[in-house]
Amino acid sequence: MAKRARLIYNPTSGREEMRKRLPEVLQRLERGGYETSTHATIGEGDAMLAASQAVDRGFDLIIAAGGDGTLYEVVNGMGEKPNRPPVGILPLGTTNDFARALNIPRDWEDAVDLIVRGYTRPIDVGKVNQKYFINIAGGGSMTELTYEVPSKLKTMIGQLAYYVKGLEMLPRLRPIHMHLKSDEMEMNEEVMLFLITNSNSVGGFEKLAVDASLNDGLFDVIVLKKCNLPEFIKIATMALKGEHTNDPNVVYFQTRKLEISSPDYVQINLDGELGGTLPAVFTNLQSHIEIIVDESGLSTYKHQRRLGS
Predict the structure, then answer these.
(1) Catalytic member of 35, 206, 259, 273
(2) Close Cβ partners of 137 (under 8 Å, ≥ 6 residues apart)
(3) How many Cα atoms occupy the beta-carbon half-sphere of 157 within 13 Å?
């Protein structure tokens, strides 16, 4: 009997590739044994609602087609519902950090074939207040640049848009007083930003969280203390090589739960989307969602299994 898949896609994501490829994608899924219905998102929050309904309607698979923003909404729509189906990813957005961390191919045909093969891996999900994130949460003056990049610019020049905007904002960087508390540590001082990561791939930095594992039940936390502009540029350069954790202005640790508060107004960035403000409690939900991955990693991940087996 054919399995039922729900394909949730953002028609404006990336260079509108999904809209162009839809008939071929559906045909390929059909040949692979999936009866697939589609939902084209029409605005913010729509993918979240569609994913929630797909879980309630008992689909065997949910496919998120778009960038990190689409995947973020799908994860939030599934939340902590019982009987969450596995998630397949078609990384057709401007930024696909999480797909990159999982080595999911950018080529749509290869990505669909990977979904059809159906090898899954349980992935940790972060919960903050009543929202969820699958790759990264952050806060501080630096993280606000994500919201300031116009979507047209983002579509046209992709990842470069973030760096251009980031360079523009460097002179405006200011330290913010924060209180961070976990079982492992407590700090109460001025910081430039904090990053709570699930994977090692964040904003094009492949070695930002060197010890990150996607299903160890732990966040990797990076805190950048108060520093000046030359120090910041030096740390950013070190981060490209994964050497930033040796810098005295960088605090790096792992934890299952972290509380953060500030007397200032501090926005939270969840997977590149606005996720509310501090204070917040970040909790790791271990192995919370099954994601379809490349089976070549089968020997590496003991929890990986074949869908339906």
Answers:
(1) 273
(2) 126, 128, 195, 196, 268, 269, 270, 271, 275, 282
(3) 9
Active site residue 273: yes
The structure tokens listed for 292 are 């379809």
Question: Which position has the token pair 């839809």?
Answer: 22
- Spatial contact of 223 and 137, defined as CB atoms under 8 Å apart: no
Please state which CATH number belongs to domain 133-285: 2.60.200.40
Structure-token pair, residue 129: 């207040």
Closest CA to 141 of 180, 181, 169: 169
Strand partners, 181: 186, 259
Cβ burial of 68 (10 Å; 0-12, 13-18, 19+) is buried
Domain residues of the chain, as ranges? 3-117, 133-285
What is the per-residue pLDDT for 309? 43
Which tens digit of pLDDT belongs to each residue from 74-122?
Answer: 999 999 899 999 999 999 877 787 888 788 888 889 999 999 999 999 9
Q: Quick one: CATH architecture of 3-117?
A: 3-Layer(aba) Sandwich (3.40)
DSSP lists the bridge partners of residue 90 as 65
pLDDT of 17 > 80? The answer is no
Contact 196, 251 (CB under 8 A): no
